[in-house]
Amino acid sequence: MRLxxxxxxxxxxxxxxxxxxxxxxRVARLGPxxxxxxxxxxxxxxxxxxxxxxxxxxVLLGSALKFEGRFQLQTKCDGPIAMIVVDFDAPDRLRAxxxxxxxxxxxxxxxxxxTAELLGRGILAMTIDQxxxxxxxxxxxxxxxxxxxxxxxxxxxxxxxxxxRVRLAVAEQFEAGRRAWRAGGxxxxxxxxxxxxxxxxxxxxxxxxxxxxxxxxxxxxxxDAWIEARALVDTVEDHELIDPEVASERLxxxxxxxxxxxxxxxxxxxxxxRCSRERIMAMMRNFSPTDRRDMVGDNGRIGITCEFCSRxxxxxxxEVEAEMALPEAR
Length: 330
Known about the structure:
Hsp33 domain, CBS domain Like, six-stranded antiparallel β-sheet, six-stranded mixed β-sheet, 12 helices, globular
């Protein structure tokens, strides 16, 4: 890749490869899409930052899908942020929501707070759904005092056994006279043609049992190419991932120009919710007639608000029951 007049672009994922280091990866930059998601709910800053990180990671992972399906990232934790759900509908639709305890968030006070502190302990589940139960895959990682970057590293070590490095950043900046949220991330993976070169060193087995030779060959260490690629990515600073003036290509050139980096066609991302009246009515079938009657408000209507996009569905109870009496469409 040659250094040229790169133009910074928002809401895109840029795939790249550094063939000299057997490394592939993606850079994600989220502007209006993440600002819409975070501003719509008016999340407190700590919650917005953590949800922004989760969205950036989801885009990095979900954009790798080679089919039209859904990638979902979900947390369930005991920290101030109890749950996060981010959906990426391939190839380009993003939505996200968070549940949190306002009192615990307020008790933290002002200032920067680590993602691990806000999540606490729990699980991170990543689900790939191609539209049927047979094609559904889920990987789960324990969250034990670390954030999304380390959780992603742990996931790929355990589930995929692919050496992976992730950097994420979120910030609120002034743009066109208003505050706007931005998020970004970069992920690199070591994918040599030889499986043996991909092996990561095992844990130290401890003392050698009595009767075993002490001069056994050592376990293979990390590949030099991966050590170099990982070290370069570790130099990425937050502002390089979120600054609207820093193009993804310029960042990649800064990191890998000595080795040569090749970029591929960028992929757009936009905020989009999957909710609809049809989906709401399908959900209503899961409730009994008594439960549905209990949903009727003082105004004689059933009001349902989408947790993702905040759209309010105003339903007539009589119309709901008439529709429930019809055979379910399949």
